[in-house]
Amino acid sequence: MHGPLNRNHLMFIPVMTEEAFDVIVVGSCMTDLVSQSARLPKEGETIHGHNFFIGFGGKGANQCIQAARLGAKTAMVAKVGNDSFGDSYTQNFKDNGVYTGFVGRTSEAATGVASIIVNDAGENAIVIVAGANMKLNKEELQDALPVISSAKVLICQLEISPQMSLRALRMAQENKVTTIFNPAPAIPDLDPDFYRLSDVFCCNESEAELLTGSSVNNVEEARCATRELLRRGCGAVIITLGAQGCVVLEAPESTSKHVPTSPVSAVDTTGAGDSFIGALAYYVAHYPAMRLEEVARRAGQVAAVSVQSMGTQSSYPHKRDLGAELF
Ligand code: RIB
């Protein structure tokens, strides 16, 4: 396999690699600025918090790190700023064994940030400023084609330009790479090609609600939503339901499966969905014959560990932290 060509990108340093990856993520990196307070503030209100920390986040990077911690050989295709957050982020990938040859830098925007508030019930509210993530362009994606086309699984989300996510999914599908698409944060009027390009379309209740226009508050409503999303052309649909587990529907089946999860005491649910998706990708890559229902059950067990401590990536388990029955 040949590495990317030098196209004189601003601060984008091409790297030759002979590696074939299990999981490639084309997606976002954010520095998470997290405040903990007893409750979320109301509109126009200032409240006291009791703790603050900075962590590594961004849905794309979170998913990549979780897959890597389970043992997947991973690469990230992303863009960070030419700033100290960008420096730390690149180092974070290296520390987690993620290949960074396609993590570009730009001086045109700052590394993405997420302002996160977590309340005492472990619930959160998040505002992202995507910054450099939006500067990832089609030439850089093209440079990554050799690794995308030889990977087992590609994951995309919606914290970079949707056109770049669509392009990455198309590249993967043309090369028979399994695609997992996480439409987060959800946007109304999602391009219909996203459904057709998704082998697995995985979202949470609120995203499913926005995309289908129907309420998704329980297992029965999630079953209806999976049918509607599958009808739009996905290979399979998973809707995650927090403590209620998830609902899985695979084409051409007409009966969805409810996959419950073990009850745990949640401290911080931020990034649990990303832990689930990263684990999903790991299992799909390593156990290609496993039923999606079982893949989802195991991914749910991994995500359940992540909600029991604070932070996003800081709460993600390594393979060594998990029971042998998950491998
Ligand atoms: O899904 C959680 C993530 O959403 C956080 O890490 C934050 O960065 C936002 O992207």
Task: Write a concise keyword list for the protein shown above.
327 residues; binds alpha-D-ribofuranose; globular; single chain; alpha/beta; nine-stranded mixed β-sheet; disordered N terminus; four-stranded mixed β-sheet; 13 strands
Output mean pLDDT.
93
Our Rg estimate from Cα atoms comes to 19 Å
Helix and strand succession?
EEEHEHEEEHHEHEHEHHEEEHH
Q: Strand count, sense and closure of the main sheet?
A: 9 strands, mixed
Give a count of the beta strands, DSSP E runs of length 2 or more.
Answer: 13
Number of helices: 10
What proportion of the residues is helical, as a percent range?
A: 25-40%
Give the overall form.
Answer: globular
Strand content: 15-25%
Report the span from N to C terminus. Answer: 30 Å
Secondary-structure-based class equals alpha/beta
Q: pLDDT under 50 segments (min length 5)? A: 1-14
Name the ligand types.
Answer: alpha-D-ribofuranose
Major β-sheet strand ordering:
5-4-1-8-9-10-11-12-13
Short description, anyone?
This protein has 327 residues and is α/β, with parallel strands linked by helices. Helix content is 31%, strand content 22%. The chain has a 9-stranded mixed sheet with strand order 5-4-1-8-9-10-11-12-13, with helices on both faces. Strands 3-2-6-7 form a 4-stranded mixed sheet.
